[in-house]
Amino acid sequence: MIVLDTQGIVLRAVKYRDKDLILTIFTRKYGKVSAIAKGAQGQKSRFLSASQLFSYNNYNMRKQKDMFTLYQADNIKSFYNISMDFESFSYASFIIKLVEANIVEGQPNNRLFELLAQTLFLYSEKIDNKNLVLDAFLLKFVDYMGYRPQLDRCTICGNKNLKYAVFSVEDGGLVCNNCHKKEKFFIKLDQTTISLMQYILNNDIIVCSKAKVAEVLVRELFSLLKIYLINYFENVSFKSLDLLKTLK
């Protein structure tokens, strides 16, 4: 019998039979894991709090046949306040769907796990710069998934003179003035936006959340990140966020 003891964050909970839930959990040690939480739909279930969306828990689970079953779960942080704010809930829901769609069973990613836990913590708090936190998460997400954009030199020739550089999504970073003339598609970015990207990549997301950043730069970075993620990741949809922004 395979036994797992690990911390995990609930990415999805689906009703199964009359009283059970099938949980998709992002675990610190084992990546994505699916597990049955027996009786978790009941209001008096011992797994009730550890089966809630976004919740961060210690889990003991054992594999029976083809599926893990929860045997013990202790809540570390519920992040319950996320559900009390529509904007925070929308951003957090988008983020966990993005993570679920792109992580793999049996492949841990500790940096991404820590990033997700920190981001959920921020959205559970009363913060004003929710859009900046989203930008910071997305940029760090592409980094931790292996697609860190090149920002300190030309991605084509290695030139460090980036005075008139543009951003090439296809090449994965900045392209110098000499090389960008050969590019069919590129994005012109404000130099301050490039500096913001470097700041985010080099700092903890908690630190980034405290930065004072003009909203126009936050929007420009988000527009770039949308294109970047769609180009490098198959399972990405921004429809829910686009709808949210039309309602604001």
From TrEMBL:
Residues 1-79 form the DNA replication/recombination mediator RecO N-terminal domain. One of its GO terms (biological process) is double-strand break repair. Pfam families: RecO_C, RecO_N. One of its GO terms (cellular component) is bacterial nucleoid. SUPFAM superfamilies: ArfGap/RecO-like zinc finger (SSF57863), Nucleic acid-binding proteins (SSF50249). Keywords: DNA damage, DNA recombination, DNA repair. The keyword Iron does not apply. Belongs to the RecO family. PANTHER family: DNA REPAIR PROTEIN RECO (PTHR33991:SF1). Involved in DNA repair and RecF pathway recombination. This is DNA repair protein RecO.
